[in-house]
Design goal:
The structure is a single chain. By secondary structure, the protein is of the alpha/beta class. The protein is built from 17 helices and 11 strands. Helix 6 links the parallel strand 2 and strand 3. Helix 10 packs across helix 11, helix 10 crosses helix 12 and helix 16 packs antiparallel against helix 17.
């Protein structure tokens, strides 16, 4: 009996000693939330102590109301299928005012009428977008302040962190990073890495009702902008970054008077003109630019455009089955990109679309082929000055300062880049992807922006190579990033072990 008690006592004592050691270990290894240039490594990399930032109860309540209105106003016809993709031929010569596309979906009248009735219900029924319940929503303190919003998760976390690090070279604006749901939430990044960069993680799923419609990919952008507590939002795709401080746009024209600024894409607009009939407009609206919109960057004031943002959310929630095909007809880049300006046009609200054509960064191969890798979007204030009352010409005027770089191909994810052939020529030579140093410095006020980006990627990779979920199973990322940086940018310090 005594032996059994002694054994039992020993077992209990041992259990509590182990438990005490376990608790002491994790208390001693809690992540630091101080701002650091280099973020210290911590134990327990995949253990969440916090979770995503909690949704604002007021914004969540606001969305509950509107999601019900969305549902009650949902399209009830069969999903739209694009049988023939609209052509974008002649996009390089599309320099003036938009004309109705000759390509249509040939939707039956009963489908058009049904979509029109659903759209009308959203705008008018139950105090909808034209109703009294909407008018004072933003003035009641629902949204405050200004900042940057982006969507990340999975392979998009790496370029998003690069984008934020590049932003920190020119601006201290706070950043809200949205992931789709908790499966994309990475505790190490959201609870340690991003806070050190004055960025905060939210999960879009935390704002949604359990029985709500599924949203993914392109649909997330409009919801992220709406759910962010910021009143003034500079939205950036995860692979897009600013080369100037975005806050200089907030109090100047054209944003000050319009509250919405969008930028152009390469391709001509291809929406089916029937969209405007569905939206209750009597004719094809005048004054729109011939080229479609590129929504890797978007500047919006909710005080002025909460109604059009909600309408854009409606177009995105029901986008893949209805409004994406109507607004693009299967053409290149189909997705959320046309929904924001379209919503403002439908509601008769002011907007400014930058007229200067999108620029391209890239390089020429030995065979003389041009390989584009990034888009350049220009300063909207300069655009007002240069193109006041005129449309951009086919030839880039070179009078406008670059403001954003959208590195869409390849995306700035080192963990994937070093395993692909994108970074080297057929002979194995490491490449500059955005053109010679001289042309880069000429375009960007003496800055070699490609070198700056690669320095951020190199440093980030060496800090996070064993902490980024998307990089699990990939090896020697830090070393390979340093080797590429040294070879391309002539940093001999690598050879001496300084970098």
């Amino acid at each position: 009996m005594l032996a059994r008690l002694s054994l039992r006592t020993l077992t209990i004592t041992t259990f509590f000693l182990i438990l005490l050691s376990f608790v002491t270990f994790f208390r001693g290894s809690s992540p630091s939330y101080n701002i650091h240039t280099k973020i210290p490594k911590t134990a327990g990399l995949w253990h969440s102590t916090k979770g995503p930032s909690k949704p604002s109860p007021e914004i969540k309540k606001f969305w509950v109301k509107w999601s019900r209105i969305f549902y009650d106003s949902r399209p009830t016809v069969e999903p739209i299928v694009v049988k023939t993709t609209a052509s974008t031929d002649g996009s390089d010569k599309a320099n003036g005012e938009r004309q109705p596309s000759s390509h249509t979906l040939s939707l039956p009248d009963q489908v058009v009428n049904s979509l029109h009735d659903s759209h009308k219900a959203l705008l008018q029924d139950r105090g909808g977008l034209y109703g009294s319940r909407f008018d004072n929503a933003s003035s009641q303190g629902l949204f405050k302040g200004a900042g940057v919003v982006t969507v990340a998760g999975g392979p998009y976390f790496a370029p998003a962190i690069v984008s934020i690090r590049m932003l920190r070279l020119v601006s201290d604006l706070p950043v809200h990073v949205f992931v789709g749901d908790h499966s994309e939430y990475e505790p190490e990044l959201c609870e340690n890495v991003l806070p050190a960069l004055n960025a905060e993680c939210f999960a879009i799923s935390d704002f949604l009702a359990q029985d709500s419609v599924d949203v993914t990919r392109y649909q997330l952008k409009a919801l992220a902008i709406l759910f962010s507590p910021f009143e003034t939002v500079m939205y950036l795709d995860s692979d897009c970054f600013a080369v100037r401080d975005p806050s200089e746009l907030f109090e100047t024209e054209p944003f000050k008077s319009t509250g919405l600024v969008t930028w152009p894409d390469y391709w001509i607009a291809t929406e089916d003109p029937v969209f405007y009939k569905i939206a209750g407009m009597n004719a094809f609206p005048p004054g729109m630019p011939a080229r479609s919109t590129e929504s890797g960057e978007l500047l919006i004031s909710k005080n002025m455009h909460l109604s059009s943002l909600l309408l854009a959310c409606y177009y995105n929630v029901y986008g893949p089955q209805y409004y994406y095909p109507i607004l693009s007809q299967g053409a290149s880049g189909e997705g959320d990109k046309e929904t924001f300006m379209a919503a403002a046009v439908v509601l008769g609200l002011p907007y400014y679309r930058v007229k200067e054509h999108v620029g391209t960064l890239g390089y020429f191969t030995h065979e003389g082929d041009f390989k584009g890798g990034a888009m350049v979007q220009h300063h909207p204030g300069d655009d007002v000055t240069v193109h006041n009352g005129t449309w951009a010409t086919e030839q880039d005027s070179n009078q406008l300062r670059p403001f954003f770089i959208h590195a869409h191909h390849p995306k700035l994810n080192v963990g994937r880049l070093v395993d692909e052939s994108t970074l080297t020529s057929p002979t194995g030579k490491a490449l500059r992807l955005w053109g010679p140093k001289e042309s880069m410095e000429k375009k960007f006020d003496g800055r070699d922006v490609e070198k700056e980006v690669w320095k951020q990627m190199k440093d980030m990779t060496c800090e996070l190579e064993d902490r980024m979920g998307d990089w699990r199973g990939r090896h020697n990322l830090c070393l390979r990033a340093k080797e590429h940086y040294a070879e391309v940018f002539g940093e001999q310090a690598f050879l001496s072990g300084i970098i």
